[in-house]
Amino acid sequence: MALWREAETVLTHPDLAPLFGADARAEVPLVGRVGDVIVSGQVDRLWVGPNEVLLADFKTNRPPPLREGGVSRAYRQQMALYRAVLSQLYLDKPVRCWLIWTDGARIMPLSEALLDDPGLLSLTLSAQTAEQR
């Protein structure tokens, strides 16, 4: 019963409702370029609305962080890259990102300040560009 309550918490959260509606997509392949880096991934949930794009990724960390500052650098980089690719496709719409922690059904929006951190993408680009050499 506890597992059902956790799932229900996610599925009925008002901010996430579009991600689980009829127009949303699950397990969406995503490929694009950010600078000199080819980005390839899979978005767990994606919804493109008339005024915004929402994306969410499920994470299984136990226990999950309480604040976005506690989110691992790898997850922040992943979401920043997904957002950068989608922002190139939907120039006129903001892209809002969420992490959904399966432990306790924690729902965490990621702020623009976190995802716009130039060091986050530049470090990602530097690391991935070096790997390509």
From TrEMBL:
Gene3D superfamilies cross-referenced by the UniProt entry: 3.90.320.10
Top-level lineage group: Bacteria
Limits of the PD-(D/E)XK endonuclease-like domain: 29-98
Pfam family for this entry, one: PDDEXK_1
Official protein name in the record: PD-(D/E)XK endonuclease-like domain-containing protein
Lineage, opening ranks: Bacteria, Pseudomonadati, Pseudomonadota, Alphaproteobacteria, Rhodospirillales
